[in-house]
Amino acid sequence: MTRYSAWSVLREGFNGQRGWDPAWRSPEPKPRYDIVIIGGGGHGLATAYYLAKNHGLRNVAVLEKGWIGGGNSGRNTTIVRSNYYYPQSAKLYDFSLKLYENLSRELNYNIMLSQRGMVTTTHSRHDLESAARWVGAMNANGVPAQMLTTAQVKRRIPLLDVSPTARFPVLGGFVQERAGSARHDAVVWGYARAASQLGVDIIQNCEVQGIERSREGRVVAVQTSRGRIESGKTAMAAAGHSSVLADMAGFRLPITSYALQAFVSEPLKPVIDTVLLSLATGMYISQSDKGGLVIGGGLDLYPSYAQRGNLPVVRNVIGAVVDQMPSLGRARFLRQWAGIVDVVQDSSPILGETPIPGLYINCGWGTGGFKAIPAGGWMLSHHIATGSPHPIAEPFALRRFFTGDLIDEAAASGIAH
Ligand SMILES: Cc1cc2nc3c(=O)[nH]c(=O)nc-3n(C[C@H](O)[C@H](O)[C@H](O)COP(=O)(O)OP(=O)(O)OC[C@H]3O[C@@H](n4cnc5c(N)ncnc54)[C@H](O)[C@@H]3O)c2cc1C
After folding, report:
1. Which of 307, 342, 377 is the last residue of a domain?
2. Does an H or E element contain 220, and which?
3. What is the structure's pLDDT at 417?
4. Which has fewest Cβ within 10 Å: 48, 118, 341, 414?
5. 50 CA to middle of ligand 1, Å?
6. Is the CB of 356 under 6 A from ligand 1?
7. Tell me: the pLDDT tens digits for 51-74?
8. What is the pLDDT of residue 416?
9. Which is more confident, 242 or 345?
10. Are residue 64 and residue 208 in the same domain, yes or no?
11. Do 248 and 273 belong together in one domain?
12. Residue 144 CA, ligand 1 centroid: distance in Å
């Protein structure tokens, strides 16, 4: 397969662009694989890639009911960060950020990682105290972060109204400098291309409709819209549809599926060169390379599988933008959409075994699993290949809901993750 480089771009420029290979193969499904992964989002594809690369397991298929990246991995607002409170979360998400830092080189695919920093603003003394505790925890966890004064916030984000009479006066904030954004499609396509090169079969338009178990209860095959496929081991990485698949396999997950919306404005000249998150409103904003403002906010607070989202949330999020940056009041919005996110009560992921022998799981990332794609894939592939959890993934096992060892990030930091 062609290696992407400045040289290959130049060569193909002279060659009429005739020499490019398809980025990944699209084979017919085989009747049996050693490992079948359900879900061709970032986590499913990264799991397949690390199974092949780290563990030499190549008889692997990723089954995707639509097109790869058509779920949340292609619908998110692309923020990457590791600003977590508890050491368990910090280890997981910072491992992911470190993998992101070398991912373009590793995959030979430009994921457009831009570590432009993320500024979290506080709007009350209570917020400020939470932020100070949060920054203390981050630094103790080995993830550098600094508190900012109101003047420092204003210097970094001149658009913000920080006056004491503002609807949301800014009392300061904090920054993680290594946070930023990456191009979501590129992450999905980069993992798909690299996994396919290593022999993984990526099978799109292949919906899993049933999970077959042996008399002893082990998962032995999946029924799909393209026929029955036997599997030695099976993994689910289906985000908001994890409960549907768990139901097919015969167990229940502590997950509620909600719509989460995102918005993009018309392209503007550069107006913000960092990521901003406002603690009081949950609104966050960054600017894409094309100039569009990429904006998100809180969940639509009723369970749903509809990828649309409702109007009160549109009003709240856009209201929060205009209240805090009045000069954006006349910017026009081009697009709005939603994805279905998999929310767990303690707002931490579920990684590893399920109660069903031969069935593994990667889910529960909720509103924040894009940044975790490299780590999620690494951890699940380790468990599938070796039969035991990676030490970083151990605290995130499903059994924590029986033992009570929950890792409640939302309660600790004051915002949903
Ligand atoms: C609007 C929005 C903004 C977000 N912003 C951020 C952000 O800024 N930063 C961040 O870190 N995270 C963010 N997230 C969360 C992040 O997008 C997700 O946590 C992450 O993409 C989940 O990846 P995944 O691979 O697990 O799921 P997905 O990408 O959803 O992939 C799951 C795949 O499984 C497939 N599937 C489902 N059922 C079946 C079946 N029966 N058979 C076969 N295939 C099936 C689906 O079609 C889908 O493609 C956001 C999410 C949304 C919706």
Report:
1. 342
2. strand 219-224
3. 52
4. 414
5. 19
6. no
7. 999 999 999 999 999 999 999 999
8. 52
9. 242
10. yes
11. no
12. 28
- Print the domain residue range for 67: 25-109+183-256+346-413
Instruction: Give yes or no for residue 208 CB within 6 A of ligand 1.
Output: yes
Q: Are 36 and 61 in contact (CB under 8 A)?
A: yes
Average pLDDT, the chain: 96
DSSP state of 357: T
Examine the domain organization and report whether 228 and 262 are in the same domain.
no
Ligand 1 atom at minimum distance from 240 CA: 30
pLDDT reported for residue 412: 73
CA of 244 to the centre of ligand 1 (A): 14
269 with 334, same domain? yes
Q: Indicate the residue among 342, 372, 404 that finishes a domain.
A: 342
pLDDT at res. 413? 66
For the chain, the residue count is 417
Band of residue 415 on the pLDDT scale cut at 50, 70, 90: low
List, for residues 107-158, the tens digit of each pLDDT value: 999 999 999 999 999 999 999 999 999 999 999 999 999 999 999 999 999 9
Helix/strand/coil (H, E, C) string of 140-197?
HCCCCCEEECHHHHHHHCCCCCCCCCCCCCCCEEEEECCCEECCHHHHHHHHHHHHHH
Q: For residues 24 and 1, what is the distance between their CA atoms, to the nearest angstrom?
A: 9
